[in-house]
Amino acid sequence: MPSRRISPPPARGCKRFPAAARANGARLVTGAELRAAEFSAGRWRIETGAGEFGAALLVNAAGAWVDEVARSCGARAIGIQPLRRTAIVFECAKFSGAHAWPMASDAHETLYFRTETGRFLASPADETPSPPCDAQPDELDIATLIERLQAATSFELRRITAKWAGLRSFVADRTLVAGFDPRQAAFVWLAGQGGYGIQTCPAMGMIAAALVLGRQIPQALRDAGVAPATLDPRRLL
Q: What residues contact residue 10 under an 8 Å CB cut-off, 6+ apart?
């Protein structure tokens, strides 16, 4: 999976996760594009651009690429649809002292903005179908965003300091996917986070860990109404 050339500001706290993984014995490998995978004698053999790996169980958490990974592993696709979303960070001297503003969105959800470390982050809330790719911002989308900001607010956009695009991936019912594939042995789906990945990642991480370890999902999640059946990939196959 290629890395972005232009990255958004990191989410608060996200740097802790790789450090915690390493502290618990995980080995993080990058530049390891999947080339082939085979399940035989109760074990996966996985060929990648970074060498060959073996595992008793494979978790497919490849974002926009999950269907491609599934096909390489002999599983059926679940119909993931990556949707491109654009965002910018800009300066506005008129409101340079704003720090505690809430996030704001228009009634039709065609524009939202919020403060971002002394600047402002804004998006046209676009959802443009895209193949899995290293998404880049489209200049027309940025122009549309600026037009909407100027029409709906009193912002004075002096300088755009960052711009990027990312892929938000959904299945047909726009609900998260987590569970064992019904046909391919030792293959777990973890997909479809769409626009909710940051908010849901702690719970999804606990759900994935429970699946891998053969345990029930944590009681706190069940008390909150999380039911494994609503996440099961069988509903899509």
A: none
Identity of the amino acid at 197: G
Using DSSP's 3-state secondary structure scheme, residue 170 falls into strand
Instruction: Specify the residue for token string 């999640």.
Output: 221
d(CA 12, CA 18) in angstroms, rounded, equals 13
The whole-angstrom separation of Cα 233 and Cα 159 is 45
Report the CATH superfamily, name and number, of domain 32-80+173-236.
Answer: FAD/NAD(P)-binding domain (3.50.50.60)
Question: Helix, strand or coil for residue 169?
Answer: strand
The alpha carbon dihedral of 228, 235, 84, 92 has a sign of negative
In sequence order, the β-bridge partners of residue 129 are 83
pLDDT at 3: 36
Structural domain spans, the chain:
32-80+173-236, 83-168
pLDDT band, very low/low/confident/very high, at 132 (cuts 50, 70, 90):
very high
β-pairing, 187-191 vs 58-60, is parallel
The pLDDT tens digits for 173-209 are 999 999 999 999 999 999 999 988 888 999 999 999 9
**pLDDT value at position 16?**
81
- Residue of 155, 165, 152 whose CA lies nearest to 107: 152
